[in-house]
Structures are given as structure tokens and as C-alpha cells.
Amino acid sequence: MRIFLIVISFLLATTAVNCQEYGQFVGNPYGVFIPGAERPLFKLNKPFVYRDPNGLEWTAPAGEVVDGASIPGFAWSLVGGPFDGQYLNAAITHDYYCCSKSREYYGTHHAFWLGMRAAGVDETMSYVMWSAVRFAGPEYWSVDSSAVAPVPCRTDNAASKSLYEMSDSRTKALAVAKFAGMARTLKTSNGRLLDIVDGRPIEAQTAEAESHLDFLRSAMAKNFDVEQPSLGCFQL
Questions:
Q1: Are residues 190 and 132 in the same domain?
Q2: pLDDT value at position 201?
Q3: Reported pTM
């Protein structure tokens, strides 16, 4: 089979305000798309860096292969593929750190949100994508300071399956309906509210939101066999 390598260089502008408030990407991702077993992969030919507002650099190394798998597939139907448009930059660095697990779990997902904002994704859609990875993305990890991630960290065979991917069809359907309910709540509140639980609103990107998303992950592991009012809004 002939393999086509498509060399790309994405020119994504970042405003000065975004740089100050949300950090900035250093340059543009440069690499090639290569065929994967289930979807195209993107291989970096040069290191790609996101510098967050505190000056901490999040670097995906040269040679890294990413596939957007840190973003649950069911979220793609709302926004397009993980490498489409303004999501590309944040998807690359988020994929790498979800694989290497070299930074703290919650901080990695927050950096994903900041990276989307730095790339020009609007606040509401950034919250939608953040909620998707927190709800049904990679499993929680603890940082092992002695571990050194290989390059590439992820290959077709190395990508681990998420809780959602390992769930049965009924649980997957409920997970999609739950995410759709959160996405609707975020959109109708202009990104202010993540969910409404038993009549009580939960604001996005708060400690309460993090706790709620942790609970929803545990509920998915139990096939959503929990007290229904505590699950919040569904869209069936």
C-alpha cells in the first residue's frame, strides 16, 4: 500500500489578549499526517510548545505521534475531528501529556482548556470540549517522577482504551446522552453552567464542577446504576 505523507504547516493567529490571559503556542505544529489503523495520525517533525499563563511550557517532542484519542469520539460530532481548525494545537499537546502522564491529571486538562482559548476557540466550546475529556477521556493518573515517556509515546498499538470505549452499548448510549445534556446546558448558559443537578446549578470550571465530573466517571463505571437525580441533565 502506498503511503501518502502530507506535509502541513498551520498558521493560527493568537491575539495579544489571549497570550496574556490564556498563554500562547510557540510557532505552529509542523509534521506529517500518516495512516493509522482506525484514523489518521499526526507525526511531529519538530517539538511543539504551548506556554501557559504562568510560563510553564508543555512540549510535545519531535517524533511524537498523536491521534486525538484524548478527546472522546462522540464529542467530534459536535465540533468536527480533533485535528480540525482551531482544535489542532491543543489536541496535540493534550494527547501527548495524557499519554506520557508526566504532568498532574487535573492540570493537564486545564491546560487543554487554556490552550483552546489561546488558539481562539470560544469560551463555551472550550468548556464543552473540556467537559468531554474530563467525563469520558483518559483515566485518572498519578505522576511518576522517575518514569520517562518513550518517543513516540503513543502508537496504534499502545493507545489504551478509555472507560467509555470499554463500556457496553447501553452505558455508551447513556454516556452520550449525559454529555449531550451538559453540552446543551453549557451552550444555553453561554458557558457559565456545566449541569443542573436536582434543581441546583453547577458552574463550569469550579471545584464543584470537577467533583461532579469525577462522580459522573464513577457512575459510568457502575453502568449509571446510581441515584438518578444526582446525575443531572440528559438529552435523549
A1: no
A2: 97
A3: 0.86
